[in-house]
Amino acid sequence: xxxxxxxxxxxxxxxxxxxxxxxxxxxxxxxxxxxxxxxxxxxxxxxxxxxxxxxxxxxxxxxxxxxxxxxxxxxxxxxxxxxxxxxxxxxxxxxxxxxxxxxxxxxxxxxxxxxxxxxxxxxxxxxxxxxxxxxxxxxxxxxxxxxxxxxxxxxxxxxxxxxxxxxxxxxxxxxxxxxxxxxxxxxxxxxxxxxxxxxxxxxxxxxxxxxxxxxxxxxxxxxxxxxxxxxxxxxxxxxxxxxxxxxxxxxxxxxxxxxxxxxxxxxxxxxxxxxxxxxxxxxxxxxxxxxxxxxxxxxxxxxxxxxxxxxxxxxxxxxxxxxxxxxxxxxxxxxxxxxxxxxxxxxxxxxxxxxxx
Length: 357
What we know:
It is a single chain. Helices cover 41% and strands 15% of the residues. Helix 7 links the parallel strand 3 and strand 4. The radius of gyration is 25 Å and the shape is elongated. Helix 5 (73-88) packs across helix 12. It folds into three domains: 5-48, lambda repressor-like DNA-binding domains (434 Repressor (Amino-terminal Domain)), CATH 1.10.260; 58-159 and 293-323, Rossmann fold; 161-291 and 327-345, Response regulator (Rossmann fold). By secondary structure, it is α/β, with parallel strands linked by helices. The longest helix has 17 residues, at 293-309.
């Protein structure tokens, strides 16, 4: 005979509502009572029927996560932060990868709604937004991560992209670099535009010319970094430093430069963004901007659960939650006085095999 919530309530001497709250991780139950109920449930081998519970609560105890590139370690860490909060709240996590494709983003939003998730956490591509407007009009719990739409009042959690990029470019300028290229993320997106604004501001403040040909767009993957490194070596004059959209792009740049015998930093300095786990373990440890993806994921998940549970009211004006970003200085930047233009040592060779991520 299956053990029911009423059985546990009778043995614990509490109401079945209190048992349900304790088992679902909801507020309103003392720590002592919750512990007693969970221990009884364990001893009695209680197994809830998620479908039946969902019919009563109209909750699926699941949330969705949609990111543009699950191969990017930054989003892996974001997902780990979200999972930690979800597990503590007895929620399952459904992860989807849009692969930087707008049609996939729209389709996955539809898929997650059909799966009846209780809410969504999304890193939006920021190309179209009607599918998110529809969610907002339906009062569906939604939180953006890393990017957002300024005219859509959806809760969001981001890094200080402007401040992080500003630190990186200022560091290069202070070291004496004057021809700084920027492999920026997808133009039009919040993070990319904030970093580009910082890049422009620092160059202007330093009295350095802005060469548009030194700003190259990238989707953010290893293969993009490898390809864009070829474009960098076609520039005349060569840049003496490169700021990459993220550490994965920087790794692609580093690989191509190594193949072409371009020395980092003796020939061209390199700075990444994210400070992923292996950034300090590369043959030339990477100077990079440290973000806090684990904490960003945790905060975004907590906001979403608060929206789902009604502990947080929807607002018509929303300010993003911003996490600080800090420059981590390693060996991929050197003293610019030692840097020379080594075009003869770094010929661009079209037709070489390109490496996909």
